[in-house]
Amino acid sequence: MGNVMKYKGYMGSCNVSFEDGVLHGKIECINDLVTYEASTPTELEAAFQEAVDDYLETCEMLGKEADKTMSGSFNIRVGAKLHKKLYLKAKESDVTLNEMIKSLLTQSLEDTKQLHMHLHVPEHSLGKEYTAELPERGHKDNVLMFERRVH
C-alpha cells in the first residue's frame, strides 16, 4: 500500500525531501498537525510510532478526542464525459447520481469480487436426473447461468 505506515489504528504518510535530504510525514486524519522526520525508512517508522504515542498521550492529558471525524462529503473532478456517463447510468438504474457514486465506491472497496459465468450445455447431454433441477433459463435454451463470490 504505497507510502503509508500503520500503527495503533493510525496512518502516517512517508515522503522524501530531496532538498533537505530527509524522509518526513504526518499522522493522517487527526484534528492536529503532527509531523515526523528521519534519515532512513526504519528511523521514519520509529519516529511515526513515537509521534502517535505522543499524540495519544497529549490528547488524553487535554481530554480531547484524538480521531478526526470525516464529514462524509468530498468533491471530485471527473470531467464532462465521465460525469455524463455516470449520470446516464444512474438514471438507467433509477437512482440519484450520489447513490450511484456511493454504490460504485463501496463495490471498489469490498474484498470480494463476483464472477459471472455462462455455460453452454446442450440439454440432451445432461441426462434426466439433472434436467428436472435446471435453474430458470434465459433467452437461449442451452445457457445455464451461475454466480459465485470469489475471495
UniProtKB/TrEMBL annotation:
<dbReference type="InterPro" id="IPR010985">
    <property type="entry name" value="Ribbon_hlx_hlx"/>
</dbReference>
<dbReference type="InterPro" id="IPR035069">
    <property type="entry name" value="TTHA1013/TTHA0281-like"/>
</dbReference>
<dbReference type="InterPro" id="IPR008651">
    <property type="entry name" value="Uncharacterised_HicB"/>
</dbReference>
<dbReference type="Pfam" id="PF05534">
    <property type="entry name" value="HicB"/>
</dbReference>
<protein>
    <submittedName>
        <fullName>Type II toxin-antitoxin system HicB family antitoxin</fullName>
    </submittedName>
</protein>
